[in-house]
Amino acid sequence: MKIQLALDRMTIPEAIETVKEAEHYIDLIEVGTSLIKEFGVDSISEIKKEFPLKPVLADMKTFDNAAYEFTIAFDAGADMATVMGAAPLVTIETCLQVAEEKRKEVMIDLLNVTPEQMKRLLTYQSAVFCEHVSKDEQESGSKTKQNKGRLPVDRLALAGGIAFSSLPLAADKDPEIIIVGSAITKAENIQEAAKQIYTALQTIKTGENV
Ligand SMILES: O=C(CO)[C@H](O)[C@H](O)COP(=O)(O)O
């Protein structure tokens, strides 16, 4: 299980400082949608330039115009980019094709995906499937928990409001990637928060109680 640090609602210099604090305790860096929307793909290239050895995910949340959006994300230095699972299948297939050509990876964001759509997505097993509780759902309290049960996918990621207290529940699904944003980035002590989550995950992996 890897930890992906999601960087949202901050400037590029703040994002770089945040990663410097947390870098020993995280496996992947996510350049959040909010950074990409506010500062463009420079947010991807500047963060990749600063941390060339860490895999970088660009949270593009692509819904259309797949070849263009995935090409600019990968050319800016992203190692993986996101496409929405509710998008037309041709969009998802184009993302997979661009990623294959450039030897990069795709994460499919399952936000608002219906069971019917999910069945169709299961053919794309090279992708990472991200179960995502959205920021708006988190903030409205309408749906604050991950679904129960594990999706029949090879590569699973979990995102949305995951914190130290909800780690055991998330880890129970044995995801490849656990995405943590605010619980680290908005903590008073970023390094301590990242270390606490990293240590808890190590403990869970070795089968001890947290
Ligand atoms: O995709 C996102 C927002 O759309 C974030 O990456 C995801 O929600 C993780 O951040 P947090 O832990 O703060 O919820």
Instruction: Give me the strand/helix succession.
Output: EHEHHEHEHEHEHEHEHH
Helix percentage: 40-55%
Beta-strand segment tally: 8
Please name the CATH topology: TIM Barrel
Strand content: 15-25%
CATH homology group: Aldolase class I
Helical run tally: 10
User: Largest sheet, described in full?
Assistant: 8 strands, parallel, barrel
Annotated CATH architecture: Alpha-Beta Barrel
Unreliable spans are: none
User: Any idea how many domains?
Assistant: 1
Bound molecules: ribulose-5-phosphate
- Measured between the Cα atoms of the first and last residue, the distance is 16 Å
* Helix/sheet category: alpha/beta
Q: How many whole angstroms does the radius of gyration measure? A: 16 Å
- Neighbour order of strands in the largest sheet: 1-2-3-4-5-6-7-8
Task: Name the overall outline.
Answer: globular
CATH class: Alpha Beta
Mean pLDDT: 95
